[in-house]
Amino acid sequence: MRRFISFSILSLWLSCPKxxxxxxxxxxxxxxxxxxxxxxxxxxxxxxxxADCYSKxxxxxxxxxxxxxxxxxxxxxxTYTGPGHASIYTGTTPGLHGIVGNTWFEAGAKRKYCSQxxxxxxxxxxxxxxxxxxxxxxxxxxxxxxKIAGNFQGKTFGIGxxxxxxxxxxxxxxxxxxxxxxxxxxxxxxxxxxxxxxKLPSWLQKFNNSGLMASYLDSVWKPLLPLQRYKASTEDDKxxxxxxxxxxxxxxxxxxxxxxxxxxVAASPFGNSLTNQLAMALIDAEQLGxxxxxxxxxxxxxxxxxxxxSYGPFAIETQDAYIRLDRDLEKLxxxxxxxxxxxxxxxxxxxxxxxxxxxxFLRDKQIPAGNFSSNKTLDSLRSISIRIAGQDWxxxxxxxxxxxxxxxxxxxxxxQKSIESAFIKWLEKQPGVLRAFKLHGEKPWPEPPLLEKxxxxxxxxxxxxxxxxxxxxxxxxGSAKGTTHGAPYxxxxxxxxxxxxxxxxxxxxxxxxxxxxxxxxxxSLMHIGFPNACTGKAHSIPLKP
Length: 545
Prior knowledge:
Helices cover 33% and strands 16% of the residues.
C-alpha cells in the first residue's frame, strides 16, 4: 500500500510541475506562459521621458520588479517593422532570416511584401489582407522552439494590428496568428494555420462581432491627463505634424468618426487598447498558461508607430499614446496576475525600431537635420543609366538600396562597373548622403564600422546592389511633415529590453545587448534549444532562488 501511494504521488508530481514546484524554489520550475511584447516604434528614452505620467503598474512595474538591458541596440540596418519583429524572435539578422525590409524587389523587378503569400487564402476576409504567412521568413522563431520543446503540445499565438507584427513572432508552427483587416475592421488570419480548419475560432468571431471596434470608431481622442502634465512634449498644433483627420489642424480633440474607417482606430491609441483586449480574450479562451506545458503569446502594439510617423516623438499625441499604452499594459499584467498567477508567467518587452525627430523640429532648435527624396534620386539615376548603357536598367529603390533589373547582370562587366561607379559618384555628391557603396562583389563593406550593420542585412536575391547611407539627422522622406525610421543610428536602433515575472530579480545591465540576443537569452532561461539560425548571444538574468 505504501509503495502504491508513493508511486502515485511521484507520477502526479512528474505530470504537474506547475502545481508541484520544487520546495527549494520560490516558484514553478518554468513559467506556464511566456508573453513577448513588441511596441512598434518605441525608443529607449520613452521609458524615462514620460515616466512622471506613467502608472505604477505598467512600464514602471517592469522597471521596478523586472530586469532591464539598457543598452539594447539593433545591429543591422534598415530598421523597419518586418525585419525588427523577425530579428527579435529568430535571434538573428536579415542576412540569415531573409526579411530585409517591409518590401523589396525580386524576380525581375517585382516588388515583394515581406509576409505576402499568394499560395494561401484569408480566413475571415476575402481581400489580400488574408494572403499572408511566415513563408518568406527563412529561419525559425523562438515560438517554434517552444513548440518543439513541448513536443508540439504547447500553444503558440501571435497577434497585432499589422500582419507582419503578428506572423513573424509566432513562427512557422504556431497554432495561429491574428491581425487586423484595415478594410473590414476585424481580426483575421490565413489558411497557413492548419489548426484553424479554415475558419476563425468561435471566441474570435464573438470578439469581432462584439461592437468593440465600432465603439472605438465612435469615440473622441483627447488627452488622458490635463495638458499641463505633458511637459515632455512641444505645444499642440505644430506645422511639421500630419493631422489624423485630413484638412484640419493637428490638434485635440480628434473625432474618429470624421474618418469613418478602421484606419482611424488603428492610427489612434485605441488601436493598442483593441489589441490589448484581444490578447486578454485569447488568453482566456485558449486557456493559455493553464497546464504543465509552457505556452507562448506574442503581442505587437502597432498604433504607436502610426501615431509617431504623423506627429513625431516630441508631440503631445505621441506622449498621450504612450501614457494610454502604459494603462493598457497595467490591465494586461493585472489580468495575467489573476488568470495565470503572479510568478507563473514571464514577460519581455522590446521594440522593432525607434524613430527620428522630424527634421523641421530639429532645425527649429538649431540642430542639423534634413530630408532626402528617394523618388527624385531614382529619376536622376535612371538618366545616368540611359546615358551610359542606352536604357534604364533600374528596377527601383527600396530600403535606400538601388535595385537593377535582371538583365543588368548579362551586360559586359565593364559596363556594369561603369554604371555602378557613376551611381556611387553621383550619390555621394548629394546633400544628406554620407556614403554610397556596392552590396555585392569584392570588398563590399568599406569603413567606417557603422557600415558593417548593412552587411548583417544583406541577403542575395532580396537585397539591392548599391546602398545609400545618409548622414545622421537626415530623413529618408521627401515630405516636410511627419517622420520615419530605418537608419542605423541610435534614434532608430536604441530600444527597451525589459523582463518581468516568474523568477526574474530586479536589476539593470548597461553592457551592450544586441536585439538578436533576446531569443537566445529566453532559450537559456527556459533550457530549450536556440532558434535554428540564431546568431545572438545569451545574457545572464539573475533569478530568485
